[in-house]
Amino acid sequence: MSDTTGRSGIDTQAHRRAPRRKKLFRIPWGSIVTFIGPSLFLYFLLIIIPVGMTFYNSVHILRMDLGMRREWVGLEHYAKLLTDDLIFRMAVKNSFIWAIFASVVDIPFALFLALILYSKLPLTRLFRISWFTPMLVSWVVVGFIFRWVYNYDWGVVNTVLRGVGLDAWVRNWLGDPQTALLSLMVITMWKFVGFNMVIFLAALSSIPDELVDAARIDGCNRAQLVFRIVIPLIRSTAVNLLILAFIGKMKQFALVWVSTRGGPMHHTETVATYVQNRAFNWRTLDLGYPSAIAVVWFIVILAFTVLFTRTLQRREVLEF
Questions:
Q1: For residue 8, is pLDDT > 60?
Q2: pTM higher than 0.90, yes or no?
Q3: 163, exposed or middle or buried, with CB in 10 Å at 0-12, 13-18, 19+?
Q4: 308 to each of 95, 154, 271, how far by Cα in Å?
Q5: What CA–CA distance (Å, rounded) separates 91 from 274?
């Protein structure tokens, strides 16, 4: 009898505590709205709504001189863009060249610098600071600095070339169609190589010392240690930096706008600068066509990003 009474008392206490437990696991909607609500509001206001308006404007003629009056044209802007716009094709070519340059040159060079610092040479801290410092400078300042560096009359590059007797190499680097785009790509490498180097250094520091010591005991030289041990272990980091570099160069705007405005003769025109020029500098007073350019380029970047991510991730799964 006492056992039954004790059990009933325990069951009664458990029954009384159950509602309290449910209250403890209730979702705190008030806190969620308080902390996340402002960020979501700004995200919708500054990102989602402008993107939606860009898609909407791309199928209209939006005349700024007529009080933003819209006229439905359907896919007319897209047809003209993909068939008749030669400047858009040049801008796409320049953007892809820039993105490929970043992939082929920028990332391996940053890895090379990171390996140098990882080997713990003298003055490692000084080199790390000096190589990363350009990342802290804004694009506007960088553009003006290199306009002076590339100046034909008194720029540093031409002054050095004249000083060593290479007068035939002296040229207007940002004004020559053959060298303008390459000169800008060198600037972006100078600015971003420090950032990529720091990320690689973090990945290299995460490699266990036991693996490196075991490889050296087994007789690996430096080249074998780098290519067979180190690089495979930091492959995921390299893939992420590769994707980020590709996306960043595909939407390059600030440096080009400050330095050349897309010239000479559109040889440094990117899709981002072409949208700006077409919308505001050509005085066409129509925002529909530039919106179509932005939509097409958004889809292109998204498609390549998804393709690269899935391809590289699938390759990692197959290898490991």
A1: no
A2: no
A3: exposed
A4: 17, 43, 21
A5: 7
